[in-house]
Amino acid sequence: MSKNLDMNVEFVEDVMGPYARERIKNMKSGEIILLDNVRFVSEELIEAPPIQHAKSYLVKRLSPLFDGYVNDAFATAHRSQASIVGFPMVLKSTAGRVMEKEVSALAKIFNADEFPKVFVLGGGKVLDSIRIIENLVKRRLADRILTGGLIAELFAVAKGLDLGKENMQILEKKGLISLIPRARKILLSGGPIEIPVDFKVEKEGGKVAEEPSNKVTGVIKDIGSTTVGIYSSFIKDAKVIVMRGPMGVIEDERFREGSKKLLDSALESQGYLIIGGGHMISMLGGSSEINSSKVHVSTGGGALLLFLAGERLPALEALDLSYKEVVKKK
After folding, report:
1. 165 to each of 151, 162, 172, 185, 284, how far by Cα in Å?
2. I need a labelling partner for 259 at 20 to 30 A (CA). Which of 35, 38, 76, 120 fits?
């Protein structure tokens, strides 16, 4: 941190004990100190309402030493813990630059003037994706939902496709068969779900082949080239693109192509791109050519999931409550 800021940052191996409080009291103008990990404090592991956390030892001991509170950790916005929701109840509070950037980018999802909106959902966290899709369909936020990975297989089965014994065994082993009725309900409600028309599969002996989705005999490992073309056309016409989760088993170089080509299509499009999830972010590599004015790489894992699933983010609610209290006092 000292290197990045080009100034000294002192680490204090304490959070709210006598040494930490004394060091804060004796800070000179321009000094920066970094307290130890707040999660070492047992209160920080408790999920509770803001009013309750405002009375925690952590907040009561430290807040008298502070003039204000800045939350710049969107990745923890889904937690209702003392350092996140307690301080805003007793201090003037605001969002930091990273938090502001995250919220501004994600607000585009709700902007009715920004359409069509295309969501590309893949990966192995199927229950998370189902929750997201249910919210998108319920609130009519998506014009197209392009599926890959295990979530695509689930919807394919829900549509009545026979993916073969091996793929069904994989879904069963991962406990996903029970989600088929939820997927079918989404389809029957008119959800704009797109499933692959072909897959890249691995056959006996490690042979790789492409097979139509209604005649799958190998183990599904990626979307096929025809699907890549169809999905890319939807992406290129979109005004807002949200990508979360890969289309295939990207750990194997043979099955990265679907994800990479869709990501390239999104980067080449004129739409605003939001990328979430470690796997998709990793596929960006160290590219310095990313246009930050049209590409947002989210720092939120669980927070992004809950946001897309339409659930509350306690950190944002606490900041909002804090602002309302300040306005009320004026």
Report:
1. 17, 8, 10, 24, 35
2. 76
CATH no. for 46-107+299-330: 3.40.50.1260
Binding site members:
251
- Buried/exposed code over 50-62 (b: 16+ C-beta within 10 A; e: otherwise): beebbebebbebb
pLDDT digits (tens, 9 = 90+) for 218-233: 999 999 999 999 999 9
Produce one character per residue of 187-226: b if its CB has 16 or more CB atoms within 10 Å, e if not. Answer: beeebbbbbbebbbbbeeeeeeeebebeebebbbbbbbee
Sheet of 240-244, strand order: 193-194, 144-147, 117-121, 240-244, 272-276, 295-297
148-190 confidence digits (pLDDT tens): 999 999 999 999 999 999 999 999 999 999 999 999 999 999 9
- Residue from 328, 303, 273, 310 nearest 118 by CA: 273
pLDDT of amino acid 300:
84
Phi and psi, residue 146, nearest 5°: -95, 125
Pairing of strands 117-121, 93-95: unpaired
| Residues 280, 210: Cα–Cα separation, whole Å | 23
Q: What is the mean pLDDT of residues 293-322?
A: 91
Report the DSSP pairing between strands 272-276 and 240-244: parallel
Give the residue ranges of the annotated binding site for ATP.
251
CATH class of 114-298: alpha beta
Number of H helices, E strands in the chain: 14, 13
